[in-house]
Design brief:
- With 748 residues, the protein is α/β, with parallel strands linked by helices.
- It folds into 4 domains: 2-165, GAF domain (Beta-Lactamase, 2-Layer Sandwich), CATH 3.30.450; 183-204 and 328-423, 3-Layer(bba) Sandwich (Glucose Oxidase, domain 1), CATH 3.50.30; 216-320, Enzyme I, Chain A, domain 2, CATH 1.10.274; 434-746, Alpha-Beta Barrel (TIM Barrel), CATH 3.20.20.
- It is built from 29 helices and 23 strands.
- Strands 15, 16, 17, 18, 19, 20, 21, 22 and 23 form a 9-stranded mixed β-sheet that branches. It has an 8-stranded mixed β-sheet with strand order 7-14-13-9-10-11-12-8.
- Helix 12 links the parallel strand 11 and strand 12 (378-380).
- Residues 568, 608, 629, 631-632 line the site of magnesium ion.
């Protein structure tokens, strides 16, 4: 057996020869042919073949030395079929001295391979993306050595990089041109709407242009330097992480362990000794660790994939000097693709984006809130899309279904455009209603307000025809900053909101943090159940400094105009009375300082916990208005986490029990003459909105895009007739009134 240094130098010389084929003129097929013969020659095998994906399910023999040349571009196999298909599916090499006896072996007579007993196949892959399979075969029945296996993996890595660089494109339908198939991703709706555009990767992938290293010592040195810088980066992040929560710190600790892992650095060193450049060595280890982790049944280990990717990408950026900003121009109609994104970053892109697709995220995440505020279609949980998508790829985002088509077939694109056109048509119809009231056939008018929280929302106040702002979520301004905003800043902002409202009613909600909304600069609470934890008014009352500052800002912004303030997540009358007293106290202080105070000050509570519906009459009497926060109220009524898609969808708003409960709140507000509105997401769903209106809620607050559809439906319906339908269904014992409501709508 040749000694290590001999096999290293043979491998280096092979890689250099491979690289030289890139520099020589000729088409993709020529190059592939030369490469298979070089590899067979260097490894002393009878056969070397390259199989590449034709489509995501099919592999094709694209070049061979040793098998029947006529089978090239004819022999195909499905993913998982035969030994080649197995390597492609699992990403794990197959090494056997007796291929025909291997489970799953499939004999392909046209290739003439029956005389070759030994088989070594390795995946051609980069960063979790399988491009094909590289195979060597020999007549004699022998297993290949570890060194040979390792050497072939290194060669496959170089092939993967060459494929990515487009070295093999050409005749035969662009062999080896990756990222060219249509792919559909099934995710979850974050924000409805449809968009067609071009991919814009938030974090562009690092391009490795030099997979082969000329001087192993120099490459090793570069790698070591980069690893030291990486370790320093992580140490710095850890030092700065005092204010982070336990989970975030744990992730950093895991990074630290990986970055200091001797095995990781040693394996990359071995790749370099075999002739890879430092960058290619990083990618090779990333790919093989990915393949291993993906096979793991342990979800914790699979989660570590992200850490590994992050770390490898950092290392690649250090090595290549490529930053996030590649200088590429935002394409026309950009659709942002990212693993995840923070609200501030999303706001920076703003309305320029046509759509957003995330691999992670959640319906209630800050990014989702911002996407909703900007009315940008958003799909979350689109797994692996950052691996597949390339900048500029055509993409269709179906926010309604949570589906994304990357590089779609023309037929799919045509059908999709029809859908967009129909939606635009409907929008036009709604625009025609803009200045008309939401009055039903019997003459009852429902106030349709909009939810807001960002300056970006304000233009919608006029364009949507909203009667006012029923919910101004003040926490968004806190979430998108890296420090607590100052009173002056807030006052200026609230003033701009009131100016833009131009006399229309605005209900400001005080800070609702905690639960899913964690401020980056506040020490997070390690709570077992944050949705029911220290959040919203509970924080405001326990640590009143920020609440007081916010109330002062609101009072000053009003400059004597009418002001409405509501407090979130009130669970007992005491909480409301205390918060109300704080606001009145601040108002009186402003008055004693000679500053103008609001001509009318309305103080309300958000009803988001069932307990409040059972509060004494005196509570309802003390409230100028009550706004039902349906998102939270529903989650606590059904004990179903609003962030957990699995349980959230189980419970319907038109469930008879929930509506009976809503009616109870309506009845209590009627008795005390307390104004009542509804401001959860359901207010923006036409059928739900109509049902609430029929039950007697005459003010609904929703996202601006929903105002048109809700108004359109209300104007066609008779709220009294629908009320009778609902009461009859309930009397008949229906567990849900949805079928009855839908039957009524069918008669319109
Ligand atoms: C609600 O809970 O319905 C609500 C409007 O508040 P948020 O969604 O901000 O919790
Ligand atoms: Mg709420």
């Amino acid at each position: 057996m040749p000694d290590r240094s001999e096999s290293d130098s043979r491998s280096r010389s092979l890689l250099r020869r491979l690289r030289d084929t890139l520099a020589t003129p000729g088409g993709g097929q020529d190059r592939l042919d030369r490469i298979t013969s070089l590899i067979a020659d260097s490894m002393g095998t009878h056969v070397c073949s390259i199989y590449l994906f034709r489509d995501p399910e099919t592999l094709e023999l694209c070049a061979t030395e040793g098998l029947n040349p006529d089978s090239v571009h004819h022999t195909r196999m499905r993913l998982g079929e035969g030994l080649v298909g197995r390597v492609a599916r699992t990403g794990v090499p197959v090494n056997t001295g007796n291929a025909p006896s291997e489970p799953g072996f499939r004999y392909m007579p046209e290739t003439g391979e029956e005389i070759y007993s030994s088989f070594l196949g390795v995946p051609i892959q980069r960063v979790g993306e399988r491009l094909g399979v590289l195979v060597v075969q020999s007549r004699e029945a022998r297993e290949f050595s570890e060194d040979e296996l390792y050497g072939l993996e290194v060669v496959a890595m170089v092939l993967a990089e060459m494929t990515e660089l487009g070295a093999f494109t050409g005749e035969h339908n662009g062999i080896g041109a990756t990222h060219r198939f249509p792919v559909m991703f099934r995710g979850t709706t974050g924000q409805e709407g449809a968009a067609e555009g071009r991919v814009w990767l938030h974090e562009p992938r690092v391009v490795v242009t030099n997979p082969v290293g000329d001087d192993p010592e120099a490459e090793q040195h570069r790698l070591e330097e980069a690893v030291i810088s990486l370790q320093a980066q992580i140490d710095e992040m850890l030092t700065a992480s005092v204010a982070m929560d336990k989970d975030q710190r744990q992730v950093l600790e895991a990074y630290k362990m990986l970055a200091h892992s001797r095995g990781w650095v040693r394996r990359m060193g071995e790749d370099i000794a075999l002739g890879l450049s430092a960058e290619a060595a990083v990618e090779k280890e990333q790919s093989s660790a990915r393949a291993r982790l993906e096979q793991s049944p342990d979800p914790y280990l699979r989660e570590r994939l992200h850490d590994l990717d992050d770390l490898s990408n950092r290392l690649l950026r250090l090595l290549t000097g490529q930053g996030r900003d590649t200088g590429a121009e935002l394409p026309e109609n950009p659709v942002l693709i990212a693993r995840n994104i923070g609200p501030a970053e999303l706001l920076d892109y703003g309305r320029r984006l046509k759509g957003v697709v995330l691999e992670e995220g959640s319906v209630g995440s800050h990014a989702a809130i911002v996407a909703r505020a900007l009315a940008i279609p958003l799909v979350i949980h689109a797994k692996r899309i950052t691996n597949e998508a390339l900048n500029g790829d055509p993409i269709l985002v179906d926010g309604d279904q949570g589906i994304v088509h990357l590089r779609p077939e023309e037929t799919v694109a045509v059908a999709f455009r029809d859908k967009i056109a129909m939606a635009a048509e409907a929008q036009k119809r709604y625009a025609d209603l803009r200045d008309l009231p939401a009055t039903d056939l019997s003459g009852k008018t429902v106030a349709l307000m909009m939810n807001a929280g960002l300056m970006a929302d304000l233009p919608s106040l006029m364009s949507s025809g909203a009667d006012g702002v029923g919910l101004f979520r003040t926490e968004l301004q806190f979430l998108i900053r890296s420090r607590v905003p100052r009173r002056g800043e807030l006052a200026a902002l609230y003033k701009r909101v009131m100016d833009a409202a131009d006399g229309k009613h605005v209900q400001f909600r005080t800070l609702d943090i905690g639960s899913d909304k964690v401020l980056p600069y506040m020490k997070p609470q390690d709570e077992p159940n944050p949705a029911m934890g220290w959040r919203a008014i509970r924080v405001g009352l326990d640590k009143p400094g920020v609440l007081r500052m916010q109330l002062q800002a609101l009072l000053r912004a009003a400059e004597g105009r009418p002001l409405s303030v509501m407090f979130p997540f009130i669970a007992t009358p005491d909480e409301f009375h205390e918060a109300r007293a704080a606001l009145l106290h601040e108002r009186d202080r402003e008055a004693t300082r000679g500053r103008p105070v609001p001509a009318v000050l309305k103080i309300g509570a958000m009803l988001e916990t069932p307990s409040l519906a059972f509060a004494p009459d005196s509570f309802f009497e003390a409230c100028d208005f009550i706004s039902i926060g349906g998102n939270d109220l529903k989650q606590f009524f059904f004990a179903a986490d609003r962030e957990n898609e699995r349980v959230r969808r189980r419970y319907d708003t038109l469930d008879t029990a929930f509506l009976t409960f809503i009616e109870r709140i309506i009845a209590r507000c009627d008795v005390s003459h307390t104004a009542l509105s509804f401001c959860g997401e359901d207010a923006g769903r036409p059928v739900e909105a109509l049902t609430f209106a029929a039950l007697g809620i005459h003010s609904l607050s929703m996202r601006p895009a929903s105002i048109g559809p809700v108004k359109h439906l209300i104007r066609r319906a008779d709220l009294d007739a629908l009320r009778r339908v609902i009461l009859a269904a309930r009397k008949a014992g229906a567990p849900s009134v949805r079928p009855a409501v839908m039957a009524y709508l069918a008669t319109l």
